[in-house]
Amino acid sequence: VSVFGQQSFSTQPFRSVFRLSSFVFHSLYINMKLSVASILLASLGAVSVSVSAKSTVPLYKRADEEMIAAHLKRENEALLSLTAEREQEQNGGAKEDARALRGSDQKLQSESEVIKDYANAQYYGAISIGNPPQSFEVIFDTGSSNLWVPKVGCTHCGNPFFGKKSKYNHEKSQTYKEDGADFEIMYGSGSVSGFFSVDSVTLADDMVVTGQRFAEVSDAGGLGMAYALGKFDGILGLGFTSISIDGTPTVFENAIKENVVDQPVFSFYLGDNAPGELTFGGYDVTKFEGDLTSVKLDAATYWQIKLDKVEAGSFSSGSAAATAIVDSGTSLITGPRDDIAALASAVGAKPAMSGEYTIDCSKVDDIPDIVFTIDGKPYTIPGPGAVIKASGVCLFAFMGINFPPPGPQWILGDVFMREYYTVFNYVDQTVSFAKSK
């Protein structure tokens, strides 16, 4: 059992610099799913960890058919957008003016929107808020740090016929406390906004975090159809408080403070076409083979580590180390555009109009292994495991995105985490991997 030590020093200058320098990256990445150790240690101080059982939340997976349907929808939208741009060009250069109004790098923005609106999030599970409890399906997202759910009366929050959402009603909770501060997250297609409130949050069946600050969302229009058609009601961020909106302590940090977890760790087991598990306060040795290998975080903001290289067939990302985020909030693996284009070519995948890649389904078994070397150790994704297949379409689950500093170069999403049981240690600042059974 880990015990927090007493360590205090000023982190405000770093935090201020980080927030300023990361503004551009947040607008592109936190929205995916929108996912600083010194701040954590200083704020928690000396905490003794009590003995309590670890708890597990079942995780349910969106069908591959839904993922492919979403891909085809994006292809159609990309075709319509291209047609509209060509018409604008023919009408005297309106395209250039319209693009300038939306920002100086529209290509980067449009290519990153696919993952940052949770359109590719596949796994979700249940929590409850308040007393008596109100239940919600949420994406447990290591790529962001806030908890939000829709409130009663929320606009753009599904409809009675499809994508119906559970909505929080604070008037029905005996443990609700008013906060009222504004809350807003910017997504590529707009914002998700509301206000902060305070209530108890229950993880699994018996882990109750009291006095948790979270957001009641009154307008979820910024997530577009990804939210309207999705099976999730909200997002529970499992990143660090250093990237939390308004500096709000995360649910898991408060769980540690309130001694409701055995150990300051949580663990993901992602089932392939079967339910997965998220364990709070420990890990399940029956879900992996061999020993866990721990990797020290490069930055305790997102769960960021150093990535030595990526190889597949004739492709190699080179010898220069890169940064990578281990992210449960997206199914895809992303990397620099040039690297992903070369990787896709090496395995026989072809670019699609949406910025994604597809591959001939008859050649899926011929895709070579894709090897990620992390801290000197190879982690292999079998070629067929890098494909999402349904309805005669085979989507290569890699996408090229260039994030500006201080963003990562690579994002290791569910495609990676399905192959490797993953343990996140909030205090030791490590991510540990072992081959999933």
Briefly say what this structure is.
With 437 residues, the protein is α+β, with helices and mostly antiparallel strands. The chain has ten helices and 27 strands.
SSE layout and pairing:
Layout: H1 12-21, H2 23-29, H3 37-44, E1 55-61, H4 64-90, H5 94-102, H6 106-116, E2 123-129, E3 134-141, E4 147-155, E5 177-187, E6 190-203, E7 207-219, H7 224-228, E8 234-237, H8 251-257, E9 265-269, E10 276-280, E11 293-296, E12 299-300, E13 303-307, E14 309-312, E15 315-316, E16 322-326, E17 333-335, H9 337-347, E18 350-351, E19 357-358, E20 370-374, E21 377-381, E22 387-390, E23 393-396, E24 398-400, E25 410-412, H10 414-419, E26 420-425, E27 430-435
Parallel strand pairs: 3-8, 4-7, 16-25, 17-24
Antiparallel strand pairs: 1-2, 1-10, 2-3, 2-6, 4-8, 5-6, 6-7, 9-10, 9-26, 11-27, 12-13, 13-16, 14-15, 14-20, 17-25, 18-19, 19-23, 20-21, 22-23, 26-27
Describe this structure in words.
It is built from ten helices and 27 strands. The chain is of the alpha+beta class and 437 residues long. A six-stranded mixed beta barrel has the order 2-3-8-4-7-6. A six-stranded mixed sheet has the order 12-13-16-25-17-24. Strand 26 and strand 27 form a beta hairpin. It is globular and about 60 Å long. 45% of the residues are buried. The N terminus is likely disordered.
